[in-house]
């Protein structure tokens, strides 16, 4: 029971950190710092949930998790229905999450590959981006080993040169910082439980923070106003509707929070509790992961 209790404490810590992140206004001022904490606490939550179920289920063996799992196929008759149920649930949740992540990665990679082929046929290289002759105003980054920045003819007509530069800088930031890898695990979890309002909210929060990170990069080289006015024009034109699956658009909802942040930055300091929260969340993650390898 001690191992399961440790996992439960780690999981509870991750939940508390996640709630703090969901409620904190500071996250919009420091999206990068918030994303680090989101990644650590989410991973802790999944590992500790699976760990707690397996630890409880395999507790009668009196061994560590990994050796007990190795013994399971030969000794499962020694477990009563509650312990066997907990093991089955732990393995199902762990396997379900892992398989779902792999399937989502594969389907997204396929969608991106199809779109890359399409771009080879219809797009032309110009001003550091691929230009598609389409009247709908869109701009997006198609991530991958060789990422592509794509803008439509409609977007080039809609934006001034300064605004277009800012938009391209935003998309390059997505490509350079591999933001698709940050959002992918959360999007896969959302697809796993599409009816969960909490997961939808968490996923939207992560996507918004990633957009803010890219905004910050663009602001660094192009200033605040060109990107803010570009986002406003995109919003008036339907928020980049028509962006393909697997791409990262410049103006996804909710764009208003980003415009406000660009035009009236709050300048809030990183909370003093952030390094402490990082330390606690990382400690919880390391504890949960290492408990799998503890021999007793
Ligand atoms: Zn973006």
From TrEMBL:
Keywords: Hydrolase, Membrane, Metal-binding, Metalloprotease, Protease, Transmembrane, Transmembrane helix, Zinc. GO terms for biological process: proteolysis. Residues 128-185 form the Peptidase M48 domain. Binds 1 zinc ion per subunit. The keyword Membrane applies. One of its GO terms (molecular function) is metalloendopeptidase activity. The chain crosses the membrane at residues 6-22, 34-58, 81-105, 272-294. The keyword ATP-binding does not apply. Its cofactor is Zn(2+). Belongs to the peptidase M48 family. This is Peptidase M48-like protein. It comes from Prauserella rugosa.
């Amino acid at each position: 029971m001690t191992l399961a209790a440790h996992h439960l404490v780690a999981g509870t810590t991750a939940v508390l950190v996640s709630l703090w992140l969901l409620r904190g206004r500071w996250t919009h001022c420091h999206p990068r710092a918030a994303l680090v904490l989101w990644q650590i606490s989410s991973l802790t939550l999944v590992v500790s949930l699976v760990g707690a179920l397996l630890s409880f289920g395999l507790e009668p063996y009196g061994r560590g998790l990994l050796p007990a799992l190795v013994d399971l196929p030969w000794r499962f008759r020694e477990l009563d229905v509650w312990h066997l149920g907990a093991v089955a649930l732990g393995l199902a949740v762990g396997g379900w999450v892992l398989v779902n992540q792999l399937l989502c990665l594969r389907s997204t990679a396929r969608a991106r590959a199809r779109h890359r082929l399409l771009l080879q046929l219809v797009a032309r290289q110009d001003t550091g981006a691929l230009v598609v002759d389409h009247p709908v105003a869109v701009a997006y980054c198609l991530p991958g080993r060789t990422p592509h920045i794509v803008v439509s003819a409609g977007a080039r007509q809609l934006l001034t040169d300064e605004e277009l530069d800012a938009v391209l800088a935003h998309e390059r930031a997505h490509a350079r910082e591999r933001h698709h890898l940050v959002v992918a695990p959360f999007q896969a979890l959302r697809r796993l439980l599409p009816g969960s309002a909490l997961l939808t909210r968490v996923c939207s929060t992560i996507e918004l923070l990633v957009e803010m990170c890219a905004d910050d990069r663009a602001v660094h080289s192009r200033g605040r106003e060109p990107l803010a006015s570009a986002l406003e024009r995109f919003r008036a034109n339907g928020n980049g509707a028509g962006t393909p699956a697997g791409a990262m658009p410049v103006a996804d909802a909710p764009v208003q929070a980003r415009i406000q942040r660009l035009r009236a930055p709050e300048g809030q300091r990183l909370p003093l509790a952030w390094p402490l929260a990082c330390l606690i969340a990382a400690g919880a993650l390391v504890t949960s992961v290492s408990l799998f390898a503890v021999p007793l």
